[in-house]
Design brief:
binds pyridoxal-5'-phosphate, seven-stranded mixed β-sheet, 12 helices, 342 residues, alpha/beta, 39% helix, three-stranded antiparallel β-sheet
Length: 342
């Protein structure tokens, strides 16, 4: 399968800054998007019927426990607004997804975070930080920008120890790249105290189509749905996503290509003496000795036509996050970093 050259429209640089897929979507999804003639003239199905049925079939979940959104960001925002407000806190860890803080500002709630030693979510630190005001505990698994993975049994331990008034939200935007967990979190959905979000933007290569979904008990879904735009996912996007999730072979190919390229990138940066944590995503977090060395690497990468993501906003000004690309692009990345270090 040929990789994409992910150049952005306004520049010639490879964008390795947003974790978009370097590999194309399923041909069936592309066909659905190309067949947009009537699809674009008509309002979409507000109940996402075919898409929900496809997700339900693949994941073994009842369709009434699923909602679809204009990307999983819409769903995360709606969940945070539905279940937290002024005076409430949402607990996350220091390097968890930045959008949660934005969603909390919209909701009027406050995001608090606990340290992530070695770039890993610390379940005990989260549990220690729970207060009466805590309404939501948020974990991205695998994490962004860290790429690290919390074993599902740790999440089950977290959920079991959390008080009933706290909702656990697990963001699995990179779930397709993580070890298969056989749906061990689905019984938590059934209990009504846990929400899992997923995205078509990463492994399915449909970031621009804006489709995400979440699994949550039907009683919670009813509350969240009140906050969604009824026509939130276009007809073409619903069809493309349904086609994509049913093309298991294509997903497997993308995940395997991503894993091989990620190993090349991760081994390459480690060989340069940079202690990249083990990633279970389509990107690698690259920690440099200090912020200055990191900026020098970023500048060299840009001069070689590669945009990486700097992470000062996370308090990680010594790190770059680099999306996995095809082997020739990774070789360019590795020599640019090497040059910047010498
Ligand atoms: C990319 C990403 C998302 C997905 O966003 P979409 O709205 O589905 O495109 C959600 N969470 C994390 C941690 C991400 O990195």
């Amino acid at each position: 399968m040929a990789a994409y050259a992910l150049t952005d429209l306004d520049s010639d640089a490879f964008s390795l800054a947003q974790n978009e897929s370097f590999w194309p979507p399923s041909p069936a999804a592309l066909a659905a998007l190309a067949d947009g003639h009537t699809a674009h003239a008509l309002y979409p199905d507000p109940d996402w019927t075919a898409l929900r049925a496809a997700i339900a079939g693949v994941h073994g979940l009842p369709p009434d426990h699923l909602l679809c959104g204009s990307g999983s960001m819409e769903l995360l925002g709606a969940v945070i607004r539905a279940f937290s407000g002024p005076g409430d806190t949402v607990l996350a860890s220091d390097y968890s997804y930045a959008y949660v803080a934005t969603a909390c500002r919209h909701a009027g709630s406050e995001r608090l975070s606990v340290p992530e030693p070695d770039y890993r979510v610390d379940v005990d630190a989260l549990l220690d930080a729970v207060r009466d005001t805590t309404r939501i505990v948020f974990v991205a698994n695998p994490g962004n920008p860290t790429g690290t993975h919390v074993p599902p049994r740790e999440l089950i331990r977290l959920r079991s120890a959390l008080p009933d008034h706290v909702l656990l939200v697990v963001d699995e935007a990179y779930g397709e790249f993580a070890p298969a967990d056989g749906g061990v979190l689905w019984p938590l959905i059934e209990r009504g105290d846990t929400v899992v979000t997923r995205s078509f933007s990463k492994a399915y290569a449909l970031a621009g189509a804006r489709v995400g979904w979440c699994a949550l008990h039907a009683s919670l879904a009813a509350e969240v749905r009140k906050l969604l735009n009824p026509n939130n996912v276009s007809r073409a996007s619903q069809r493309a996503a349904a086609a994509a999730i049913q093309d298991a072979n294509h997903l497997e190919t993308v995940v395997a290509a991503t894993r091989a390229a990620r190993t090349q990138l991760c081994d390459g940066v480690r060989a340069l003496g940079l202690a990249a944590p083990e990633s279970h995503t389509n990107f690698v977090l690259v920690p440099f000795a200090d912020a200055q060395t990191c900026t020098r690497a970023d500048t060299t990468l840009r001069s070689c036509g590669v945009q990486a993501r700097s992470l000062g906003g996370y308090g990680l000004s010594h790190c770059l996050r680099i999306t996995v690309a095809d082997p020739p692009t990774i070789s360019t990345v590795l020599s640019a970093i090497e040059d910047s270090l010498s």
